[in-house]
Write a structure and sequence with these properties.
Oligomer: heterodimer
Structural class of chain B: mainly alpha
Strand content of chain B: under 5%
CATH architecture of the largest domain in chain A: 3-Layer(aba) Sandwich
Order of helices and strands of chain A: EEEHEEHEHHHHHEHEHEEHHEE
Shape of chain B: globular
Low-confidence stretches of chain B: 320-330
CATH superfamily of one domain in chain B: MetI-like
Number of helices of chain B: 13
Helix content of chain B: over 70%
Order of helices and strands of chain B: HHHHHHHHHHHHH
CATH class of one domain in chain B: Mainly Alpha
Distance between the termini of chain B: 32 Å
Mean pLDDT of chain B: 85
Largest interface: A-B, 40 and 25 residues
Radius of gyration of chain B: 25 Å
Chain lengths: ~325, ~325
């Protein structure tokens, strides 16, 4: 079956004052209809650049190479006119900071109505705006529609952004850290809403997060990114219960539910490499306590662990020493 | 409410003080400037006056008294609504001014409206095609035109379009005896208007362009793009409303700037408006006329400044009182 979204060998390079920054380095992934794929990684790991290049929202100064196929059509090279028809209709996006992405001087009603009218000029806009606000579980629809963004709370704003994204019933929703700027209690509400909407509308979702616990609630599959590359990809079960990459271990260890019996919560030492001149081998090697000599010299290929589970680490090589992941699971068992 | 009345009184006092100060400055400077006020009164004849006759004329016009006394007398009469006679026109000052007011209002008004439209349009074009050839071309030529002095540019226009290519009249507001013909008035308006517009438009267009270019990089543009909107539509429907409040208060502040510009242009084109009049009255030491015109201009400038200030405080919905009363809810 043709996947809904297919990213092949994507490379994104920015020009910076100190040289070209390789934000995304050769990433490939596939997303099936109705599936939720989570991209997890630290800030700067290239997850945002990856999703923005799918929507083609990167500034013109960013050079994008590779292929992004949506329903088999190439998104990266299609003309602007054609692209505009896809945006909102075939794929939509919600963002990290809902206050920043809503226009401060236009009412919520206008901003939603615009999205509705653009893709369906015949629609009863008023009616549809109310429907959408109800869909994202806003109680006082009329009052919210008449408000300006700054009059709403953070959670409400994210609901409004979600309503805009759903206006034309997209097949693919890209959620770029949708809960990062919200309070913890509101985060949970928004995640539950996302989950129920995703199931109800059977909408494929690309969820971006730096927080594995956010991902656990929603994702069917998880891709872990580090320094512009995917280092491990698998189903949520595989990533949470049989993680194979030391970086995934480190991410899991820093969650309260997964950490071994340690006094303090684990924190991964060191900082990610700069992507201006990335190291030759595994970019994670300098922070990896299990790093092998070859990790510093040669980039590890993807080792296939199961039909769906791949990890790019030399530890999976037949000649590598066997290492027990430093994890102790206390939740979900 | 009390606070607002207090604010209002405070502002009113500032206005009165500024105008009084302005009147002292103009009064002193005009009398200190070298020249013979009697030339305004007697024209060429002034040179033929005998010493006694001069003395007598100066005495009669009150020009021999010490300056503070002269100023005190002027102030007292002005407070009673008596602004004196124009030396040159031998008519009450207000009568001379009102005869020319219409012409100036026409020139300033049309310049202002066209300038608003033109600068907004140019700014949008440049921002929409940022860093393209048309943007660069407009930016370069705009800088050149806004750096040319207005009087010189006006002369250039006269040379090009009245002398070499006689399309438009070089002076006046209308042909003699055709004061009621709108077409004729517009025909006379073209060159002065062009001079004001071309020398001022770029300054404001550039501000609009830069504001818009900044706005295009705002985060909300990402969401607008993700909706599927076109670049032009985002610029006009999303960015412009965010720029407009600042632009409106800017244009109100521009009013005095444009007023000053039209004065120069009026003088070059002998356009019978207040600008030509103020130039004339300064040149011929027509003290009473000069005082009133300067104070009038000053009042317009002060009023525009205050209006801009008031607009700035009100226009942004985020800072407006009514909206902040609605508290956050979830």
């Amino acid at each position: 079956m043709q996947p809904l979204l297919e990213v092949k060998n994507l490379k994104v390079t920015y020009d910076s004052a100190s040289g070209p920054v390789q934000a995304v380095r050769d990433v490939s992934l596939q997303l099936q209809r109705g599936e939720v794929l989570a991209l997890v990684g630290e800030s700067g790991s290239g997850k945002s650049a990856l999703t923005k290049s799918v929507m083609r929202l990167l500034p013109p100064s960013a050079a994008v190479e590779g292929e992004v196929l949506l329903n088999g059509t190439d998104v990266l090279h299609m003309p602007e006119r054609h692209l505009r028809e896809l945006r909102g209709k075939a794929m939509s996006m919600i963002f990290q900071d809902p206050l920043e992405v809503l226009n401060p001087v236009l009412t919520v009603r206008r901003q939603i109505a615009e999205a509705v009218r653009l893709h369906d000029p015949q629609a009863d806009t008023e009616q549809r705006v109310r429907e959408l606000l109800r869909l994202v579980e806003i109680a006082d629809v009329e009052r919210c529609a008449a408000s300006l963004p700054h009059q709403l709370s953070g959670g409400m704003r994210q609901r409004v952004v979600l309503a805009i994204a759903l206006a034309a019933q997209p097949q693919l929703l890209i959620a770029d850290e949708p809960t990062t700027s919200l309070d913890v209690t509101v985060q949970a509400q928004i995640l539950d809403l996302l989950k129920s909407l995703q199931e109800r509308l059977n909408m494929a979702t690309l969820l971006i997060s730096h927080d594995l616990s956010v991902v656990a609630r929603l994702a069917d599959r998880v891709a872990v990114m580090y320094a512009g590359k995917i280092v491990e990809i698998g189903t949520a079960e595989e990533i949470f219960y049989q993680p194979a990459h030391p970086y995934t271990w480190a991410l899991l260890r820093s969650l309260p539910g997964f950490s071994a019996d340690e006094e303090e919560l684990y924190a991964l030492p060191g900082i990610p490499p700069t992507l201006i001149d990335p190291p030759a081998g595994d970019a994670f090697a300098p922070r990896n306590e299990y790093a092998l000599a070859i990790d510093y010299e040669q980039m590890p290929p993807f080792f296939r662990l199961s039909e769906t589970h791949f990890a790019a680490t030399w530890l999976q090589d037949a000649r590598a020493p066997r290492i027990t992941p430093p994890l102790q699971r206390r939740c979900g068992e | 409410m009390n606070q607002r009345i207090f604010q209002l009184i405070k502002r009113l006092l500032i206005v009165i003080a500024s105008i009084l100060l302005l009147s002292v400055i103009v009064f002193t400077m005009s009398r200190l400037a070298p020249g013979d006020p009697l030339i305004a009164y007697y024209g060429e004849q002034a040179e033929k006056l005998s010493v006694e006759e001069r003395e007598w004329a100066m005495e009669r016009l009150g020009l021999n008294d010490p300056l503070p006394q002269q100023y005190g007398r002027w102030l007292k009469q002005a407070a009673q609504g008596e602004l004196g006679l124009s030396y040159k026109y031998k008519q009450p000052v207000m009568q001379v001014i009102s005869a020319r007011m219409g012409n100036s209002v026409l020139l300033v008004g049309s310049s202002f409206v066209l300038l608003c439209v033109l600068s907004l349009l140019l700014g949008c074009i440049c921002a929409c095609y940022e860093d393209s050839l048309i943007d660069k071309l407009l930016r370069r030529s705009g800088i050149v035109f806004s750096c040319l002095p207005e009087f010189w540019f006006s002369l250039l226009l006269i040379l090009l379009f009245s002398v070499l290519l006689p399309l438009f009249p070089s002076s006046g507001a209308h042909c003699i005896g055709r004061a009621d013909s709108i077409a004729d008035r517009l025909h006379h308006l073209v060159l002065p208007l062009a001079a004001v517009l071309i020398s001022h438009a770029w300054y404001y267009a550039y501000l609009v362009r830069n504001k818009l270019c900044e706005e295009v990089r705002a985060e909300y543009v990402l969401l607008a793009k993700a909706k599927g909107l076109s670049r032009l539509r985002i610029l006009l429907w999303h960015c412009l409303p965010n720029v407009l409040p600042g632009y409106i208060s800017l244009m109100v502040l521009a009013l005095p700037h444009i007023l000053g510009g039209t004065y120069v242009v009026e003088a070059v084109f002998s356009y019978p408006g207040l600008g030509a009049l103020i130039y004339e009255s300064a040149r011929y030491h027509d003290y009473n006329l000069l005082m009133v015109l300067s104070l009038f201009t000053g009042a317009v400038v002060i009023a525009a400044n205050m209006l801009a200030q008031a607009l700035n405080e009100r226009i942004d919905p985020r800072t407006a009182g009514i909206n902040t009363e609605v508290s956050y809810y979830d």
